[in-house]
Amino acid sequence: MKERIKRVQELIRKSNLDAFLFTSQPNVFYLSGFRSSHAYIIITQDSYHLFTDGRYYEKAIKELRDWDIILLEGDPLKGIYKVLRKLKVQSVGYEEDKISCEFRKRLKGSFKWEGKRGFLRDLRAIKDPIELERIREGVKVSDRVYRRVLNRIREGLRELEVRAMIVQEFFKEGAMGESFPTIVASGEASSIPHWETSNRVIRHGKPLLIDMGLVWKGYCTDFTRTIHLGRVSPEFKRVYSIVKDAHLFALEKVKAGRKIGEIDRAAREYIKKKGFGKFFIHSTGHGVGIEIHEFPRVYFKGVDRDVPIEEGMVFTIEPGIYLEGKFGVRLENMVVVKGGIGEVLSNIPLDLIEL
């Protein structure tokens, strides 16, 4: 964590600020490793301070021995102002994109407040060795859970029953929970990319899309496979093959120095070439880390399209084709940029499974 603090202090210097106030819980966790529903961090050019209330104070004292821990009582901003005055700072940055309008209006006092958007965005996009180790561990756990659940899927189960199996297995493995609500989409429901898992009954002769992720030591995983109960139709087999090839073509574009949008373009152009362009209705991927959706978005038309691919980035590749009223196919893996190329983290094959 100290290395992260040093990098942030250097960023504060380059921004001509005396200090920075972090209010978002993902950034508080990134900087300190401390998890709570109510904590703030102030970092100056030569110090760092964490604020929390009585519910977490004892925990913070035990876990963060190198930090200055301040107990918040009553109005948090009053406690923050008190410390800022003690530190004798003048210009203070804050997370403009992470606070409410009400909170922003209350940023007064004798300080020069400067709102910043995505202040830690670029730092968080490049995962350090500790982060990568946790993400790799999480993906291994996810793979084990998927294999076990796959062996228990049968006709007659309801989608929510399968989700319950997945979540139960997450907790058995020691995960902190889901990184997002697990999607179990059977039959025609698989044509809705973000289907809300329901009491729909799983039927023989139909596809089943499973999009699942867990939180492991504070870091998210994301994984999707589309399987089929019983023999597949020629149409389903063709669409599945196209999505699989699009996934592999996108993976080939993961090279350090290239633009992130090229990954999306490779998958999208291939799917379009095969006549299904209008049925690929979302981006090819997104960054993953402390949050399930992080910078950069992998989309050739998006604001991040020209972002260069860098060593240590972690993002998903998840092309899909969705035929309304019929079925959908999505295949998703998390990828880390290692040695200048993309390394797939999951060991689950992309091959079509017919149960």
Strands, helices and their partners?
Elements lengths: L1 H13 L4 E4 L2 H8 L6 E6 L3 E5 L4 H7 L4 E4 L4 H12 L3 E5 L5 H5 L6 E5 L4 H5 L3 H22 L8 H15 L9 E4 L20 E6 L2 E2 L2 E2 L2 E6 L5 H19 L8 H13 L11 E3 L6 E5 L15 E4 L2 E4 L3 E4 L2 E6 L2 E4 L11
Characterization of this structure:
- The N and C termini lie far apart (46 Å).
- The chain folds into two domains: 2-121, Creatinase/prolidase N-terminal domain (Creatine Amidinohydrolase, Chain A, domain 1); 126-344, Creatine Amidinohydrolase (Alpha-Beta Complex).
- The chain is α+β, with helices and mostly antiparallel strands and 355 residues long.
- The protein is built from ten helices and 18 strands.
- The longest helix has 22 residues, at 129-150.
- The protein has helices at 2-14, 25-32, 57-63, 76-87, 101-105, 121-125, 129-150, 159-173, 234-252, 261-273; strands spanning 19-22, 39-44, 48-52, 68-71, 91-95, 112-116, 183-186, 207-212, 215-216, 219-220, 223-228, 285-287, 294-298, 314-317, 320-323, 327-330, 333-338, 341-344.
